TrEMBL record:
Co-factor requirement: [4Fe-4S] cluster
Function: Ferredoxins are iron-sulfur proteins that transfer electrons in a wide variety of metabolic reactions.
Name of this protein: Ferredoxin
PANTHER family with a match to the protein in the record: PHOTOSYSTEM I IRON-SULFUR CENTER, PHOTOSYSTEM I IRON-SULFUR CENTER-RELATED
Classification via InterPro entries: 4Fe4S_Fe-S-bd, 4Fe4S_Fe_S_CS, 7Fe_ferredoxin, PSI_iron-sulfur_center
Length: 56
């Protein structure tokens, strides 16, 4: 199951490079995680400076 990015996201892009399968992309004013691509590794969770990413 994919991780979720909450509305707390400040769209800084810090999580982009941490994703080994490139499941994170910009969607308007925040980032989003493609559920069908995410491998649920959690690498993005630790890179988010505002703790906006959590397990689904």
């Amino acid at each position: 199951m994919a991780h979720n990015i909450s509305d707390e996201c400040i769209n800084c892009g810090a999580c982009d490079d941490s994703c080994p399968v490139n499941a994170i992309s910009e969607a308007g004013s925040k980032r989003t995680i493609a559920a069908d691509t995410c491998i649920d590794c959690g690498a993005c969770v630790d890179t988010c400076p505002v703790s906006a990413i959590s397990p689904a």
